[in-house]
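Progress narrative, work stream C.
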Amino acid sequence: MRVVLFTGKGGVGKTTLAAATAATVAANGRKTLVLSTDPAHSLADAFSCGVDAEPTEVASGLYVGHVDTQRRLQDSWGDLQGYLTSLLGSAGFDSLRAEELTVLPGAEELLALIEVRDHVRSGRWDAVIVDCAPTAETLRLLALPEALDWYLSKALPAERRVVRALRPLLGPAVGLPAPNAEVWAAAERLQGQLLDVQQVLRAPETTVRLVLTPESVVVAEARRTLTQLALYGYRVDGVIANRVFDGGDDPWRTGWAQTQRRQLREVVDSFEPLPMYTAGYLPAEPVGAEALASLGAIVYGSADPLATVAAADFLQVRQVGSGFVMTLALPLVDKDSLDLTRVGDDLVVTVSGRRRVLALPSALRRCHVRGAHVEDGRLEIRFQPDPDQFPRGSEVHP
């Protein structure tokens, strides 16, 4: 099973290229589903057909799906929202206002990922192609499962202990409803779904494909996106440069072609060894499965649209002398955009405003951070064992 997530700056044509890739994969004989986590849901327009919650076959072996986030919202968030609504009602909020305040931010996009997880786990498909939202929204979305799981892991046990201790004081005494077993079960069910989503998205068979146009602003954002995706542990398997001019006789087209050639060289230099595919500036918009399959055939040529590339592990720990070095693979990272903080047993890494909390391995929790530096797309952090945590003469292993 292959899963490919498409993203890129808004307006670069990622929906069209996700659809073209799916059409090409299906034309090669593999049963393919293409879904969208973008609230705009432009896939139906790309295929010029109606799309329902149940995947619709639009060509032989090619299915298009529309995520029913309202049903998912009720299944995954309904019990929790009901409790929070009653809590706010007890505090004096009217029911409409209370319901508005208990809507989970990013819920629709997150639940769309749970839907993707379900399709991947179903075994119905050879490939699942996902048309994601533009890069900023996609980065927030892909960071959300881990962030929410971290919060629930920290908060749930503590909250259950607090509620158990305060239960005699809740209810009649202060008029606040205590969460029942269904509420805790709903929270734990949501946490389990988030963990499974992470496993699917970080599996070796799941990759991200970046779509860009050969313009300096777009290329710069794509470079940052590559680094930030690596920060969250996602693998990028290729770049598609869209709307490329093939030259021309008139000065306007010639100027654009020359500018694009400079940017394409920048793309190759920046993203190598990732493969770069190109899609020319077409005279008409490709709409429908047949036109999209034709576009995909041009983009990929004889290459396999589902080909993967070798990728280094995001996180490695090795022993160096009496200490340790933790290495994080962050391609194209700029040291000036990087911030590193140790918080208890966690390491907080921030790149261009995107933050990830990493739980330190057991041995490193008993070490002090002694320095860090960036080299060839790698962040290397040095740790030295704390003598009070490691008795003299004891063996130290990462």
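Work stream C, second folded protein:
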Amino acid sequence: MFISTKTRTAATVALAVIATVGSVALQAQTGFPAEVASTQPIAFYRLDSTSGQSQVGATTYKATGSAGIAVSGAPVVTANGRYIKLDGHTAYITTTQFGGVGGAASIMAWVNMAELPSQAGHFFYLAGESESGNDLDVQFETDNVLKFYTAAGGHLSYTPPPDSLIGQWHQIVATLDTSTHTRVLYWEGNAVATDKGGGEAGKKNVFTIGESVVFTGRFFHGGIDDVALWNRALKPTEVAAIYAASGANGSSAPASAPPATFAAPTAASGPFATKATVEIEDANGPIQLKREEQIAYMFLSAIEEIEHECQLDIQHTCPLDQLLAGTYPSGKNIEHLKFNPNRTDPNYTYTLAVNGMAWEAHATPKKPGLKGFCFMSRNIGSTTATYSNSGPAGWTSTELGNRGMEGDSFATQ
């Protein structure tokens, strides 16, 4: 069932207002993201969803393979708590950032390993623009040493204590200046390795996160958050200021286990076979969800995931019938819904309104005592989610802050 034309028009106007407010908020943001933005990166990916847009410039990113969204991300005080979790076998993140690096470069990433590379038996790639003979790659190798490659073969390295790596967040920054032949590795805001190894200028390939598309098989296993790329070498004072702005004190929750507030349904419960786990919070903290409410949230989360793909790949949103049938333009590898929610969920009515790059989805309870949910998006990578303790939710309802889902999705190929 679709929203009426009158309601849809009002919803679109509301979305435009929300987008404008969101744009102003981004420009006026403070703390960690503002500190990063003040140093003028050419790309800055918050990685709080499986696809989205850089905080600067026009590039986008998209997760490939078995990547999921989890909470308790990098310990940055203004983060929304979500990060991308990679499985170490198939998952990585590609971007539309190509080259953009001349005689100098810097790369930042927050990482949280689920296991050591020595245990996995392969390298863990963090981020870079791989190119045979002209590398720009940051990775952990099977000796558990962090290495920064900037040319053909030569590298700068740092060996952190292995027992500090698993289940803890760490900020890593690597800088290169070919004019002074200087390379530096930073760990938690401090320079831990430097040399005059130099490196070649003019990096031209695609910027990827969690796997090299040139030197393949280096899938990162664990969490990656807040990745940035600069076309200059950051100064030590800038790296220290960025780390200080995060408010971090060394580590955070493990990437391998969700917090205790997750609700973990069994595969047999309810009309849907899923073991997915859901966590959401508002300004007052975690929100307890009934099983029926978890199902409703998972449907809207799947719609969000698919609509992001539509926005990225075909530059417009997709109506519900396309999300159900998967009838997208030829050659577009966009997911579709596993189930028709209005036929299979006895507890909620689902609506989806689309208009250009804007979409708005509602899960409205059919009986008292259940929360209503609303997801709204005006453009790529920005979604506002709200809920109501009873009845329909809309853009004036209580906004969700931290939110995440881990496990199998209601979106599938």
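The chain has two domains: 5-21+258-412, 39-246. No further action is required on this item.
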